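Hey, quick one: can you model this chain's 3D structure?
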Amino acid sequence: MHTTKIIQINLMRSNAPTDLLQMIAYSLNVQVFVVQEPHIHKNHQILGIPSTWKYWLSGNGKTGVITTVDLSPILVGLKENAVAIKIAINAGPLTIISAYSAPPNHKHTMSESGQAGISEALQNIDSFLQNLGNEKIIIGADLNAHYIMW
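Sure thing. Here's the predicted structure for all 150 residues.
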């Protein structure tokens, strides 16, 4: 039985964590990375990953999915704050969704802009889920949902 390994990670728009992806992929045999805040060039290219890897980024470039091997992925859709692909696994089709919401303006309370960002990201996710029925789904998201009671 073949196992598909998937890791979710926030790359902090930085070279250092992005450079570690290749080492992580090979040492842990990871086939899919669900990433938030990738280090991208102005033309929406993720910097620092091997050219043989495939990737899809959201409209704002703040979230994406990277495949390290050929899984014959199909793009489900791109939204402003989310992206979704579909791959085939032993158990059937698997949809992988990556989403991101920018942090609210104030650390200790949820501002209106923070709520709007989370709401928009959740709406993007929901739009993908509407057409999937009972398919297997993995959602990796960094919603920056800070709450003072935590």
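One thing worth noting: Residues 112-129 form the longest helix (18 residues).
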